[in-house]
Every structure is written in C-alpha cells, then in structure tokens.
Write a structure and sequence with these properties.
324 residues; alpha/beta; Rossmann fold; UDP-galactose 4-epimerase, domain 1; 7-stranded parallel beta sheet; two-stranded parallel ribbon; 10 helices; 38% helix; globular; binds uridine-5'-diphosphate
Length: 324
C-alpha cells in the first residue's frame, strides 16, 4: 500500500519544518509548500535529498495545484509574530482567508482531512483565565494585532463552515506560545529577542513592567499534540500549549541566568493591545488526546539556547533587534 501523503503549508517555517520532520519520521510522503516570505529553506534543506519529500515554492493565497493523492492538509502558512504581521499586514490577512479557502477547496477535491493552525490570539487580551476553548475572546479588530487575530478567527469560521456544510473532515488547533530551535532570531518574539540580545552582549528589552504573563510550550510537545489531534475524530477547536505560566520579567531573569550574560533587563514601551495574561486550559487535550506537555522550561530552554549559540556569527549580528 502507498504511503499516506500530507501537504504542509508554511513548511519552511518554525512549526511547519518540525511537522515535516515528524511526518517523514512516521513514514508519510510529505509535500511542503512555502512562499518563503518568513520561512527559510535552511529549516528543511536536510529533507531535499529524501524521496518522500517534495517542495513547492508557492504562495498558498493563490490557487493551489498539487497532482496525486493527498490524505491530510496542514495549514501552517502565516506570519506569526507581532513584528512580522505589522510589516506584512495584508499578506497576513490573505493567508488566513484566501489561503485557507484554497486549502479547503483542494481538500474537497482530494477527499483529504484538513488541520488548521489557529492560535491563542483568538482570545485576544483575555478576560477569562486560564483560557478554555468555549471562551469567545476579547479582540480589537482594528488594532495592530487585528490582522492576525481576525484572519485566524475567520479561518476557524471558514473551516467550520466546510465541515458543517460540505461534511469535510477538519481539525482546529489553538496554539499557545511555542519555542524551540528554528525560531527566527529576528522575528521579534520574546525568546529569540532575549537570547539574541544576551549573545550579542546587549541589554534585554522587556516591554512594559514585565508583569504580563505567557506560558511557553516546547516545540516537540506541541508537534506531538497536533499529530494526535489530526488523528482524532474531534472537529471543534482544541488548545495545545503548556500551562506553566510565567511573567515576562521572570522569563527574562531565567534567560539571564541561562546565558550567563552580564547584561540586565531594560524596560521599553508596551506595544498596543499586548495581552496581559495568557495560559491554556488543556483539559480537553488531556481528555480527548491523552496529551500533556513533557518538556520542562529548563530543559527546553537549554536545547534552544544551544541551537542559537551555534548559529554562524554573521547571522547573530545581522539579527540585532530593532524598535523603529
Ligand atoms: N516582549 C518583550 N520584549 C521583547 C519582545 C516581546 O518584553 O523584546 C514581550 C511582549 O510584549 C509580550 C511577551 O513578551 O508581552 C510575548 O511576546 P511575543 O511577541 O513573543 O508573543 P505574543 O505577544 O504574541 O504572545
């Protein structure tokens, strides 16, 4: 029997590339797709020599044509950091709307199951803590994060409509802050920002007073949760993330300790609509998927730091964090 074949959009990105690795390791044929706006071929170059792997340099917001059977489609194409979606707001909106429409259309033709990458950003600046899947959120549609948050909310609505109207098999994962190797040093997110600054001998830029919280999940835990959700029979959204919550100030202190830097935390203005708190309620994932995170922050941060400090020096230097 032929291998199952999976299409992964955003394949050259942080999460997309880890998904490619997982599906290859599990014996699937993988078709990766990416327009390389925020993705990087370096993340998947080790797969190019494999017969089970193909790559399409294509913008998923335009019509998708992939010949042959496809069993699963995972839509992971999207800018995913506040700095990126401020720089490319229209593409962010398009990939969450036109991009998912193309994936869903392709899935109907191929009779494939679709899993979409949604996000804790659908909860906005949440008034319910920790966030459960039945919370509808507190999103500012016209604020700087609106292009991402609303694209992802639309993507969920569109996916549900294909499920209920066309009977398509669909899955929705709401991803909370995730970290690990292959994050982009200059994507502006807090972990690469802090580690990059420590490695360059700069102070660590803490936004606001650092009292806002996040809950960081190591990438291998997240990828395993996504795989289990894909194979489950549950079509409503499921949170996948690590409920271990920490303030950004404490997080900065942990990075200072880990890297042994002599620099300190300096406060910078808090970006508009920056959520004050975020922590997933993962009861559903536990119950439905028998999933919970296994990698502690201490362990995950160590692996991630080793990855960043072994990057070429030029890459580290050209990634200086900017606030203009
Ligand atoms: N943050 C920070 N310094 C930075 C980058 C981010 O203090 O250099 C803060 C940011 O304001 C937010 C938290 O870290 O409160 C997480 O930010 P990130 O961009 O990683 O993700 P998100 O806000 O989407 O959770």
């Amino acid at each position: 029997m032929a291998n199952k074949r999976v299409l992964i959009t955003g394949a050259a990105g942080f999460l997309g590339s880890h998904l490619c690795d997982l599906f290859i390791a599990k014996g699937y044929d993988v078709v990766g797709m990416d327009n390389l706006i925020t993705g990087d071929l370096k993340n998947i170059e080790h797969l190019f020599k494999l017969q089970q792997f193909e790559f399409y340099h294509h913008d998923v917001s335009k019509f998708i044509h992939v010949p042959g059977q496809i069993d699963y489609i995972l839509h992971f194409a999207s800018p995913a950091s506040p700095i990126d979606y401020l720089k490319i707001p229209i593409q962010t909106l398009k990939v969450g709307s036109l991009g998912i429409h193309n994936c869903l259309g392709l899935a109907r033709v191929k009779n494939a199951r679709v899993l979409i990458a949604s996000t804790s950003e659908v909860y906005g600046d949440p008034m319910v803590h920790p966030q459960t899947e039945d919370y509808w959120g507190n999103v500012n549609p016209v604020g700087p994060r609106g292009v991402y948050d609303e694209a992802k909310r639309f993507q969920e609505a569109m996916t549900m409509a294909y499920h209920t109207f066309h009977g398509l098999e669909t899955r929705i994962v709401r991803i909370f802050n995730t970290y690990g190797p292959r994050m982009r040093l200059n994507d502006g997110r807090v972990l690469p920002a802090f580690i990059g600054q420590a490695l360059r001998g700069e102070d660590l830029t803490m936004f606001g007073d650092g009292s806002q919280t996040r809950s960081f999940c190591y990438v291998s835990d997240l990828i395993e949760g996504i795989y289990r959700l894909l194979l489950s029979d549950y079509a409503s959204p499921v949170n996948i993330g690590n409920p271990n919550e920490i303030t950004i100030r404490e997080f900065g202190e942990e990075i200072i300790k880990l890297t042994g830097t002599n620099q300190k935390l300096v406060s910078k203005p808090l970006p508009k609509d920056d959520p004050k708190q975020r922590k997933p309620d993962i009861s559903k994932a536990k119950e439905l998927l028998n999933w919970e995170p296994k990698v502690s922050r201490e362990e995950g941060l160590k692996i991630t730091y080793d990855y960043f400090r072994n990057l070429p020096q030029e890459e580290l230097m050209k990634s200086a964090h900017r606030f203009d």
